[in-house]
Amino acid sequence: MHVSICLRLPFLRDSLPDITRSYGQAPHWPGALRLWPGLPQQEDISLEGRYCPPDYPFSPAQARACLEDLRSMDAAALSGLPLEATAECNARTGRLITEMASLKSLNTHAENQNTRAAEAVQQQRLEREQAQKALIWLWLQEERLAELVSLTARFAQTTRALNTVLEEGENPRQGLSFLGPELSLDLSLVPPWRLSVINAACFLPEGSAILAEGQMREDLLERLSFTQAPQYAALLACPDEESGRILAASAALWQVLGRGIPAENAPLHDLFCKNFLWLTWQEDA
């Protein structure tokens, strides 16, 4: 199978330390790229080693506007402000209303072939817009998780410093051991990997490779029949001495998601029937 691109999923950002500790360190194979959700380039994040699909429906400016909308909804939810109030003040609410009306109209009977063709194009556009919005939302969730990890690390550092002050000196006191062990990220806060894979697949040509990490890797090792595949070392930019660790399996998206074979007229039939090359690695002996 000829493969032209390999993505590293389900994380759009680099994997967090807590996730790495729980599921193991992924090999550093530069050929496996992170998916970029179409945002403008950011000063603190290099686009090197990232892949931005050329057929995103939103421009970088529109993607940034979508991200800011999601952030404002986050802030409103945390402040107790009803989300409806935020939406009413959003200039892009009109676009959402138009999208919903378009989706509703797609359910009506098409009177001629031209109308059906136009509706098919419109539906495909709407599906791709929703997929990119989901990727932007996942990007924001990973940003929030990174902030949470940073906060818990600072808390742990402060606790250790206070313990040192309280337990040393001429009049030592009991430290802060009553606080229990150091905090770590609750992995249930990590978005489900299926959400990332489904929406990323919308922008990947059939036959692309996906390197699985985290919980996704563990699930696929149980679900698919992997075999050693050193022939993909060049694709992954993997050193020759590590090529024996590469594992590969070919499967349709519906198999990976644990679904049944979709009916021919089922929604997103073509997407779920896309075949991809799924890669992971064998742990060192």
**Count of structural domains:** 1
Which regions have little confidence, pLDDT < 50, spanning 5+ residues?
Answer: 78-91
Q: Estimate the global geometry from the Cα principal axes.
A: globular
Give the strand tally. Answer: 7
Helix content: 40-55%
Q: Describe the strand arrangement of the main beta sheet, using strand numbers.
A: 1-4-7-6-5
Derived from helix and strand composition plus strand pairing, the structural class reads alpha/beta
If helices are DSSP runs of H or I spanning 4 or more residues, what is the number of helices? Answer: 10
The major sheet is characterized as: 5 strands, mixed
Radius of gyration: 23 Å
Average residue-wise pLDDT: 80
Question: Explain this structure to me?
Answer:
This protein has 10 helices and 7 strands. By secondary structure, it is α/β, with parallel strands linked by helices. The protein has one domain (about 5-165, about 190-280). Strands 1-4-7-6-5 form a 5-stranded mixed beta sheet. A two-stranded parallel sheet has the order 2-3. Helix 2 (about 60-80) packs across helix 5 (about 115-165) and helix 5 (about 115-165) runs antiparallel to helix 6 (about 195-200). The longest helix is centred in the middle third of the chain and has 55 residues, at about 115-165. The protein starts with 5 loop residues before the first strand and ends with a strand.
